[in-house]
Design a protein that fits this description.
This protein is of the alpha/beta class. The protein folds into two domains: 47-140 and 268-335, D-Maltodextrin-Binding Protein, domain 2 (3-Layer(aba) Sandwich); 141-258, 3-Layer(aba) Sandwich (D-Maltodextrin-Binding Protein, domain 2). Helix content is 41%, strand content 21%. It has helices at residues 18-38, 58-70, 89-96, 110-114, 116-119, 127-130, 155-164, 179-191, 203-211, 224-231, 279-293, 296-303, 314-335, and strands at 6-8, 15-17, 47-51, 78-82, 104-109, 131-140, 142-147, 170-173, 196-199, 217-221, 235-240, 267-274, 308-312.
């Protein structure tokens, strides 16, 4: 007959089998191991704001502005960690392996999260499953641009010109898989114009080739550089891609206003954390980011990059990302390009 060994649990007077006590002790030990991660205090160690582009560009500058404004939550310091390459996937990978304690964050444009995953077949790239959206903090429109010497004044005239003259059908963008690329694809689908995509290594290079007359059309992010070229007559902006007219270009109609309802494309940047970041940490970060986006200084900093304030909390930002990802999936498939190589 098996003899069950028992011990008295202190302060209860109840006799428990030793085997059960050992199991209970294991549960306690495991929970104690888990507690430091779950209860990690925000800012008690050096923190990082990861970005998927090189230092010195407009996106990097805005990330650094945010990092400065977030410093109050990080007494041990917050640095911007540039992880360019692989169409932004290296930045996502840095978040995958980071502790979910709020001390490693990602600053990202929406295209990386809603377009790129559908153009990457290898590696099961699903960033929205690996990340917790905290706040959307800015939005940016795109513009359909031609040389200032051109006689074209609207989208319909450009489409007609591209159909008549194949040498006028090429449009330059910041690269494959960008919103600019897909705006051109949507315009070609909507009109039957034989538009040909010419991807560049960055938007500045694409603009320069349109200025020089090498590429007749450019689809570019609204930026202070673009606004300057338009103001001095070197470039002409025929349309903007947002739901409404850009505050920087109030006289330029949208694609929608010109009869192209399928072309409504905005990019918005936001801050995200690893997926398992505790809710209380997300709430604290979201509150601080809401304060930042409500400040005049932040709005002024965005304006210098041609961007406008957007202030979505965790729920609204998550919904926005999910909806946009679902929208882009069939468009990317139809465009037939891949970012795997």
């Amino acid at each position: 007959m098996e003899t069950k060994m028992t011990e008295r649990v202190p302060d209860t007077g109840v006799m428990w089998p030793r085997r059960r006590l050992l199991k209970a002790g294991s549960v306690v030990a495991i929970s104690q191991l888990a507690c430091p991660l779950a209860q990690a205090e925000l800012g008690k160690k050096g923190a990082r704001l990861v970005v998927g582009f090189v230092a010195g560009g407009a996106g990097d500058n805005l990330a650094r502005t945010l990092a400065l404004d977030l410093q109050a939550l990080y007494p041990a310091g917050l640095i911007v960690d540039n992880r360019p390459g692989a169409s932004g996937r290296l930045a996502i990978d840095a978040l995958r392996v980071a502790d979910p304690d709020g001390n490693t964050l990602l600053y990202s444009p929406s295209a990386l999260l809603t377009i790129t995953p559908h153009a990457v077949k290898a590696g099961n790239f699903k960033p929205l499953d690996a990340l917790k959206p905290i706040a959307a903090v800015s939005r940016q429109d795109f513009a359909l641009v031609v040389s200032g010497k051109s006689k074209l004044t609207n989208v319909a005239e450009l489409v007609e010109k591209a159909k008549e003259d194949s040498s006028f059908a090429t449009y330059g963008t910041a690269g494959a898989g960008t919103p600019q690329h897909l705006i051109g694809h949507l315009l070609a689908k909507a009109t039957g114009a034989p538009l040909v995509h010419a991807p560049y290594k960055g938007g500045a290079a694409a603009l320069q080739d349109t200025l020089a007359g090498h590429t007749p059309i450019c689809i570019a992010a609204v930026s202070q550089q673009l606004l300057g070229f338009a103001a001095d007559g070197r470039l002409r902006i025929l349309a903007v891609s947002g739901q409404k007219r850009s505050s920087f270009l109030p006289s330029v109609p949208t694609f929608i206003q010109q009869g192209f309802a399928s072309i409504c494309v905005e990019d918005w940047s936001g801050v995200l954390a690893p997926a398992k970041t505790p809710a209380e940490v997300v709430t604290k970060l979201a509150k601080r980011l809401s304060e930042i986006t409500g400040s005049t200084l932040y709005a002024d900093a965005l304006a210098k990059s041609g961007q406008e304030v957007l202030s979505d909390g965790p729920a609204a930002y998550t919904e926005r990302l999910r909806n946009e990802s679902a929208r882009w999936a069939p468009i990317v498939k139809d465009a037939g390009f891949s970012l795997d190589s």
